[in-house]
Design brief:
The chain has about 270 residues and is mainly β. The protein has one domain (about 1-270): Jelly Rolls (Sandwich), CATH 2.60.120. It has 3 helices and 16 strands. It has helices spanning about 1-15, 25, 240-250, and strands at about 30, 35-40, 45-50, 55-60, 65-75, 85-90, 100-110, 115-125, 130, 140-150, 150-155, 160-165, 180-190, 200-205, 210-215, 255. It has an 8-stranded antiparallel beta sheet. Strand 8 and strand 9 (about 130) form a beta hairpin. The longest helix has 14 residues, at about 1-15. Bound molecules: 2-acetamido-2-deoxy-beta-D-glucopyranose (NAG) (2 copies). One 2-acetamido-2-deoxy-beta-D-glucopyranose binds next to loops. Keywords: Glycosidase, Hydrolase, Signal.
Length: about 270
């Protein structure tokens, strides 16, 4: 079985994310906490620092209507709760109360290795699924990816699909239809635990800034569903990916909003 999984992963590796030395400045710009954000001279690595005075964040230059997004990330080494290290897509405008919006999140809750994924579907979210990862995310860089096309949204960790959110608009479930941009940030949130400030500063590292996506404005999102974009061709996970996803969810998922005791599962939980 181990051999099978290994083979499957090496096949996927070729297909999905290839590391690059893409320049941060070509794809992103600093958004907040500017004196807590450092870009190395080649633009190939960014550090976000969190201390008692501030965290920091950056965002993509453009808004997009579909894409295969990814980044390499290493979360802070020092042990604490309460510090959120993130990589996500959002349709919320900068510096505004987001209100109802679309958002697809990777959020590390503290530095104990638990990552939470969430889907805001033009509403308040609360579609949390958390994973206790099979590696120490503060030790090395790992790739966090989000595919968003007209058929489905897939969250990947190092090529392993860990979560799929299907377009079920035919069943009345909303689906992202507004331009979204990427953000990455470090900040503190009391819902993610208690911060041990004696361990500060907390430093997150990011690399690998290129991604594939279709730039869009509000009235041009539909143009981004064209199959001339390779990431729109995948209408569902293949058999290998489905099996991997099942295995990894069974082994590593630590919280699932779909099974938190509701008598009737939300529509978006039904396969
Ligand atoms: C969702 O799928 C439907 C077909 O079932 C399609 O018409 C629609 O454009 C898709 N929505 C988005 C936002 O891609
Ligand atoms: C890690 O921290 C999160 C947030 O505080 C908590 O929900 C989770 O149970 C912790 N996991 C472990 C394995 O300690």
């Amino acid at each position: 079985m181990g051999f099978l999984i290994f083979n499957a992963i090496s096949i996927l590796l070729v297909v999905l994310f290839t590391n690059s030395n893409a320049d941060f400045n070509q794809y992103y710009y600093p958004l907040w906490g500017l004196n807590h954000l450092t870009v190395d001279p080649q633009g190939t690595e960014v550090q976000l620092l969190m201390d008692t005075s501030s965290g920091a964040g950056f965002r993509s230059k453009w808004e997009y209507g579909s894409g295969l997004f990814h980044i390499r990330m290493k979360i802070p080494e020092r042990k604490t709760g309460g510090i959120v290290t993130s990589f996500y897509l959002t349709s919320a405008p900068d510096y505004q109360n987001p209100g109802n919006h679309f958002e697809l999140d990777f959020e590390f809750l503290g530095t104990n290795g638990t990552v939470q994924t969430n889907v805001y579907d033009n509403d308040g979210g609360h579609r949390e699924q958390s994973f206790k990862l099979w590696f120490n995310p503060s030790q090395d860089f790992h790739t966090y990816g989000i595919l968003w096309n007209p058929h489905h949204i897939v969250f990947y960790v190092d090529e392993i699909p860990i979560r799929e959110f299907n377009n079920k608009t035919v069943r009345g479930v909303d689906y992202p239809s507004m331009p979204m941009h990427i953000e990455a940030s470090i900040w503190n949130a009391n819902w993610a635990g208690v911060v041990d400030w004696s361990q500060a500063p907390f430093i997150a590292h990011y690399q690998d800034f290129n991604f594939y996506a279709c730039p869009a404005r509000r009235n041009t999102v539909s143009l981004c569903s064209s199959v001339k974009y390779f990431w729109n061709k995948q209408t569902e996970l293949n058999a290998v990916q489905k099996r991997l996803m099942q295995q990894y969810r069974k082994l590593y998922m630590s919280y699932d909003y779909c099974s938190k005791g509701a008598t009737r599962k939300p529509d978006d939980c039904i396969a």
